[in-house]
Give the backbone structure.
Amino acid sequence: MAKLWGGRFSKNTNELVDAFNASIDFDKRLYREDIRGSIAHAKMLAKQGIIPAEDGETIKAGLETILADIEAGKFDFSVALEDIHMNVEARLTERIGAPGARLHTCRSRNDQVALDMHMYMKREVSEIAELLIAFEKAVLEVAKKHSKTLMPGYTHLQRAQPITFAHHMLAYFNMLQRDFRRLLGVWEGADMMPLGAGAIAGTTFPIDRFFVAEQLNFSKVYNNSMDAVSDRDYVIEFLSFASTLMMHMSRISEEICLWSSTEFGFVELDDGFATGSSMMPQKKNPDISELVRGKTGRVYGHLMAMLTTCKGLPLTYNKDLQEDKEGFFDAIDTVKFTLAVYRDMILTMTVNVDKMAEAISKDFSNATDLADYLVRKGLPFRNAHEVCGKCVAYAILNNKFLGEISVAEYQQFSELIGEDLYEALKPYNCVEARKSYGGPAFSENDKQFVIGDEVLAKQEAKLAELKANI
C-alpha cells in the first residue's frame, strides 16, 4: 500500500518496520477526536479561502460517514497506514477524491496528533472527574452512616487513640478533594490548542488558529509552534495526578485488606466484591483491593516512562513521542476502573461496629487521656506522661487495662487521680473530648459533613463547566 508520505522514497518499507512504526492498534481510540478536529480544520480552510467552500462541505460529509462506519464496526483499520490519522484520511480520499487530498493542507501529523491528544485528554478528564465525585460521595455517605462508630486509630500500625470510623473515612475524603484539584490542573494543561503549528514552523497560508480553537472549545492557543508539537507536559501532569490518586487508593486498599482479615474483622466485603480459593473453601479474598494496590505500581511506571522518554528530546517532534499513548491510555483505564469499582465496593461492605467497639475496650489507646486528665489536675505534661507510662506498665504486668485499675492502685503513682478518671477513660468520652478543629469529636464530624456537601456541590458545578467545554 502506498504511503501518504512516500513520494521521496523508492522502495517499500520493510514489514517489520511497518509493524514497529505503526500505532493504529492503540491510537484508534482517538477516532472521534481525529474526525472532529479534521472537520474544524476543513471549515477553517474553507472560511479562509484556502480550499473551495464546496470542498469543505464535501470533506465534512465524508468524515461524518467515516465516523458512522467506525462506530458501527464497519471500518477496517490498516497497519500499513500506521495510525488513526492516515487511516481516516486515506479512506476519506478513497471516497470523495481530490477534496479529501486537500484536507491535510496547512497541517502535519505532528500538530494533528497533538490536537487529538489534547481533545481526548479533556474528554477523559471530565469522565474521571465524574467518577471521582461519585466516589467522594460514597466515602462521605459511609462516613455519615458511621458518625458514632468508634474504632482504634493507629500510628506505626499500633493502637494509638480512639477515633470514629467516620473520622477515618473523612481523611480519605480530604485526600480525594486534593486529587480533584490536581485533576483540574490537568484540564488546564490540556485546554490549549496546538493545531496550526505544522511540523515545526507553522504555515505560509493565512490560517485562523483561533477560529479552530473556538470550534473545538479550547480557551487558549499555543503561542509557539515548536512548543505546540513537542509539548507532552499535559500527559505528564495527568500521569502525575493518576499516580497520586492511585497512591491514595492503594492506601485504602491496604487498610481494607487488613480490616477484612480475621485478625482485625472490622469490615466484611460484599460477596460481589470478593473471591474465593480454588483449594480452600473457607476463603474470602479482597482481590479488588489487592489488584488496585498492585496496579498502582503500573501507573507509577507509566509516569516514570514518560518522564524518561521526554528528558533528552531535542525540539521539536521526535518519534519517541509516540510512546506517550499506551501508558497514558492504560493509566486512564486503570483509574476509571478503580474509581468505579471502589464506589460500589465501599457502599456495600459491612462495617462490624461491635468488633471495632470491642477492640477499643481492650487496649491502651486511652492512655493519652490519662495524661491529659493529670494535666488538667495541674501536673506538667512531661510529668503526667511519665506517670501515665508507669500506670500502663503496671497494668500490663497485672494483666489489666487502664479502666480496670483501682483508684488505690493509681494513687501509688499520683495522688491526683480520683474516681472521676473512669469517665475520662471511656472511649466515647475520649473521642468526644477531642473537639479541636479537624479532630474526631462527633460535633467536629458533623461540621465536616456540612463542608463535604459544600465541596461536592462546587465540584459538580465545575464538572458541568468542563462538560460544556469538551
